[in-house]
# Entry
Amino acid sequence: MTTPIQLAEQLSTTTLLRFATAGSVDDGKSTLVGRLLHDSKSVLTDQLEAVEDASRKRGQEAPDLALLTDGLRAEREQGITIDVAYRYFATPRRRFILADTPGHVQYTRNMVTGASTAELAVVLVDARNGVVEQTRRHAAVAALLRVPHVVLAVNKMDLVDYAEPVFAAIAEEFTAYAASLGVPEITAIPISALAGDNVVEPSSNMDWYGGPTVLEHLETVPVSHDLTGCHARFPVQYVIRPQTPEHRDYRGYAGQIAAGVFRVGEPVTVLPSGRTSTIAGIDLLGDSVDIAWAPQSVTIRLADDVDVSRGDLIAPSDDAPAVTQDVEATVCHVADRPLTVGQRVLIKHTTRTVKAIVKDIPSRLTLDDLSQHPAPGQLVANDIGRVVVRTAEPLALDAYADSRRTGSFLLIDPADGTTLSAGMAGASFAAVVRAAAPADDEAEWDF
# Structure
């Protein structure tokens, strides 16, 4: 039996995987999550007892494992997922942060929230229905957010007599569609979440399938949290000037390294001003170090007395991002109030927040068929579209394709601080997606 100390030692050496689940209504997504937690022994006794009690009150003989994630009263009454539910669990091989996202089209914004930091997305399909419009929407959102790994879980195989041809046809259709969006890796797994087939334990009912179970794939899929190979970026969060007798001349710039590596003696540029200097010192946890890397929180000292404040970005002089006041991006509108052309907003990028105005909304993306609606004039809740934003001050933006951290931003209502839209700078999909639009629009916009 594993002792608490041994378990703590195991977890300290395991990697972390953030993943999100998505699926159409009644595809069994919450049941899959519940089964995954239950069969991997990640459910506490009192939680399981509460689910069993709630299931009995609803007239169910067996515990409804979907109740492990559907915690809102409206979710339990309707049997659907409405909000993003986060669950944390671990096995001896890996730690997991799971975002169980809604399947309804009116909750697209919730899926964007849950999948924005995910390294893997599990998309459920009902084996009886195959690939439907919502399945394509979920694949498109995963592609827009540059989720590197997608798992197609073909659920309810027990209701189609575990037929291999049914699974093969669905897997082929989905893989072709997702690959056309630029999704780099797609893994298809036939499962029955209700019966537990191929979720944690291999299924004896599908001996024709020789691949991994869902949990095996989650434990072994290669994920890299090593940001040291990315473009080095350091958003300044706070300027430290103690001005005490022992630190009278100390000036340091504190923050978290967003990506890459910084070294003492390295020439750097401060953006958006463009002033240059050299790193004179790096302070980490009270000690001076010669090198620091993402995602460490450090204080950087420069050799020259340059004007640096919160919101500035420090980057290597030979690899600095372009500075612009015209931001072209794809946004998912998350607020109930619409986003309109001419609207004044705040744009928050890393630690910098500046005033801006929405100059244009060239198109709105229809996720059903990836066609675009040109010049919609506004975006309403759950809409995804292209925008052009003019900022009052320059921003040092990377393309979202190069960096999910420094290529993303928020549009905020300056009146009350409400988040309006979540944005991704640069191109939309990893691959060019042809759409039903005029030729001149296709030349300018990429969906």
User: Anything to note?
Assistant: Confidence is low (pLDDT under 50) at residues 4-12, 72-82, 432-447. DSSP finds nine helices and 25 strands in the chain.
